[in-house]
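QA checklist item 7 of 12: single-chain prediction sanity check.
[x] sequence parsed
[x] length recorded as 126
[x] structure emitted
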Amino acid sequence: MKLSPSDQKTVNDFFREHVDRSYKTPMNCIRMNVDHTSAHRVRIFEICNLLIDSKIPFWTEVRMKNGCIPDILAPTHISRFIEVLGTETPGDFFSKKFHKYESCGFSEKDFLLVDAKVELQAQELW
């Protein structure tokens, strides 16, 4: 996908500052993790398809310098991180995982938490 110069700069700056490029896993693939619920895996695919259809750049399987791998990274247009919650609640996410992101300067507004068990409405992503 061709990005506008300002969006490309945003992406480049984000990757330079926050992404661990030494970790050699293929980005932009969706790993079928046995530890995730079926609903979680399906919801990730649905969101990725929606982002593709909307021409919004995103990445998956991106290892951050803080060691986290968010479900979906979308540093332009919408929340930077999209996390699909399968068995955990928003409270669980913020109490167990958020501190790693917060230590890198991210805030709660940088996250969109999507419940894997609730039907996704496209407008929820904007």
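[x] summary fact logged: The chain has a mean pLDDT of 86.
[ ] second reviewer sign-off
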